[in-house]
Each structure stands twice: as C-alpha cells, then as structure tokens.
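Single Protein Entry

Contents — chain, fold
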Amino acid sequence: MTNNDHIIQVQNLTKSYGSNNVLNGINFNVARGTMLALLGPNGAGKTTTVRILSTLLSFDAGSVSVEGHDVGTEADKVRAVIGLTGQSAAVDELLTGRENLVMMGRLYRLTKNSATARAQELLEEFDLVKAADRPAKTYSGGMRRRLDLAVSLIATPPVIFLDEPTTGLDPRSRLAMWVIIKRLMANGTTILLTTQYLEEADQLADQIIVIDGGKVIAEGTAEELKSKIGKDRLELTFESPEVLKAATKALGTDIIDTNPKAHSATIVINETNVDIKKVLDILSGENIELISMAVHKPTLDDVFLSLTGKQKSTMKAEGK
C-alpha cells in the first residue's frame, strides 16, 4: 500500500506536559475509507492524539498529516477536510437543532439556501426532524450526540474523528449511533474512533491500535488481536463446592481457573470437540455430575486486560 492510500499518517508523534510524557513516539496509518479504533485505558493518550490530529493541540516532535496536509504547518487545509465529534456534545443548547446545523453551515461558508438544505438532509438522516425546531437543551443524551455528529458532517468531510462518541448513552442510543457510523463508512468516509467500549471497536473497526503509557503496544484486526490471547475456554459449572473440588482433582492441571462462589472451573481448549469429549469422559468416569458448560472465545476485553496488564508490569519493572 502506497502512502497515497493512507489518508492519515502519524510518525513518531510525541507530546509532553512538563515531565509528563503523554505520547512517546506513536506511529500509525489509516487507509482511505476505513476505520481505525484507538483503544487504551484512561490517560493513555487517545484524546490527546485526536486533538493533535484535529489541529486543536500542538505536538513536540514527529510528523502528522491528514489528506496529504501537514497538521503542524497547514492547519487550515486540515480543518477543511475533517469533522470532529468530541466526548461531550458541542452544540449551542439555546439554539434549535436546525439552527445549530444552519449556523455551522454558514461558518463553513455555505450560502443560506445551501446551509438550510444541508441541515434538512442531516435532520432526516439522523432522525431529528420531529425535534428540529426545539431548543437543543430539551434533547435527550442520545439526540444531542446525534446532533453533534450531524454538525460535524455539515460540510461532508472525507475524514471524521469520533472521540468516544457514545460515552454516557444508553444501549439503544448506542446501537442507533453504530448504525449511523456504519452508514458513514459505507459511503467511504475515513474514521478515527476512540472508545472505552471494546465491543464498539470489535463491531465497527477495520483496524485496532492499543495504546498505553503513550506507546502503541499492539495493533491489528479484532480477530488478530484476539488470537494473541490464546485458545477458546471451556467453563464448567457444578452443583456445589464439594463437587467442584472433586472435579478439580479429577481434571488436574487442565484447569486454569476456578470460581468457588459460582461452583465453576475453566479449562483452555485447543481442539473443541476432542477436548470437550475428554473432559466429559473424565467427569463421567468419576461419577461427577455437570450442571452446565459453555465455550467462550477470547474477547477484546481479554485482549485489553492482558495487554495493558503486561504493560503495567513492564513499566513497574523498569521503575517507571
């Protein structure tokens, strides 16, 4: 893939606040028409990265470009090709939804008629027509987030930065936002997403980068990251602590974890059918009754906890 295919390019990006190194030389590219998700614990540098990319924050070293424009020296050109939805809705609560959209359109130098027409398009697309002429302060959280995203799209930018766009939303509103985001992707928009919901990255992103301590500690597709965790796990549940104890003795070192309160044990499996049959044969031979069993595949939660946990252990060992 050539550089022309990378609409966002970040190389050796660093940013410090005094002695606090927020970004320690991160690198990534985002291919045109795809979504990259940035994952990381609070304070990892996700929002700082987005603020730098969207020209809201300066950086100390490295190079950053969006659509071929240097973020440091061509900020105006960068702003002309991006949209930004931050962690909190950046709309004027005293204006109606329609007025917010028209005002932003006028700021982008659209004519009054063009701004009004574009506002109507977005109100329809984001299911805000019925609330269009109500003050934004009367909107629910989900409606405000939809309006905020609509405002960022007034000029149909090819690149959108979504900084935790569904934070604080109820599950139904979050799913509604996912539908809108998928529609944007289907239309060819390039998206950089930060999120604290791992399922969100799993559902939406083409590529995922995990950052911690200001560094990229893992990257790949959701499936590639999950494969790093290991194999599937078989969870077995028994009737009582006594039965669990007998099962633990019978299965021996195959068990990697137990939960006495839930009367359950967990086993890593390599070949699902073969390993499950082996476990059932052992339990049957010892006359140990099984209440239920379930196969669990690695999730992004497992990946996240494993990677960030290892990072903390490394930093502690290095005295950081």
Q: What stands out?
A: Residues 311-320 have pLDDT under 50 and may be disordered. The first strand starts at residue 6 and ends at 17. DSSP finds eleven helices and 14 strands in the chain.
